[in-house]
Amino acid sequence: MRLFWFRTLHAAGTGLLLAVFVIGAPRGAAAQDAAAFISNLGAQGLWALSPSVPRAQQEARFRQLLESNFDLPEIARFVLGPYVRTMSPATYQQYLPLFRDYLVQVYTIRLSRYADSPFRVTGSRPWGGETVVTSSVWRDGVSPIQIDWHVINRGGRLLVADVVVEGVSMKATQRAEFTSIIQRGGGQAEALIAALRQQLAQAR
């Protein structure tokens, strides 16, 4: 079963990043720091996905970047939609590592094709309690891919809360995909667990 991240995440560009810590920064300074954070993320992603690096090493590098710099606990909860409230603690503990492994595989497989593409931050703006950093990924012969990174400050630590590719929120689309799988499984969260395990097994 092909899930959303295999169809869409490859468009998200090449970035995942160095940590930047900002405590009590003014709003304008926060936007600048978020832009630098995403710029560094692009450079680190290029390094992690270098085609000269074996796949296992790519995955190890990418896992570290993903877990250190994305707001994974909140994303993992959000994409479950209302089912997060009905999932048992035991099932949720099964889900978390599968979700993280799933993201690592998707990014490594799909984004490696962009490893040699220029990544450029083009601006930033405040958006509620977040900062939206705009960027582009350039490939020869095609129009640049427009990517917005939603960056949140969690206790002085900058984290990516969402990635919007050509106007499409990955977090929201992933939520629709996951909740649809659970609905087709009779509202049982175990249906999503089984789908994730199947996808991971097929990708190996």
Strand content: 15-25%
In the CATH hierarchy, the architecture is Roll
Number of domains: 1
**What is the mean pLDDT?**
82
Uncertain residue ranges: 4-27
* Strand arrangement in the largest pleated sheet: 1-2-3-4-5
Going by CATH, what is the homologous superfamily? Tgt2/MlaC
CATH fold annotation? Nuclear Transport Factor 2, Chain: A
Q: Report the biggest beta sheet as strand number plus sense, adding barrel if it closes.
A: 5 strands, antiparallel
Q: Give the CA-CA distance, first to last residue.
A: 14 Å
Order of helices and strands: HHHHHEEEEEHH
Provide the helix percentage.
40-55%
Inertia-based shape: globular
User: What CATH first level would be assigned?
Assistant: Alpha Beta
Radius of gyration: 17 Å
Counted by DSSP, the helix tally is 7
Number of strands: 5
| SSE class | alpha+beta
Structural commentary:
- This protein has a single domain (4-203), classed as Tgt2/MlaC (Nuclear Transport Factor 2, Chain: A).
- The two termini are 14 Å apart.
- Helix 3 (55-69) crosses helix 5 and helix 6 crosses helix 7 (190-203).
- 50% of the residues lie in helices and 19% in strands.
- The protein contains 7 helices and 5 strands.
- A 5-stranded antiparallel beta sheet has the order 1-2-3-4-5.
- The protein is α+β, with helices and mostly antiparallel strands and 204 residues long.
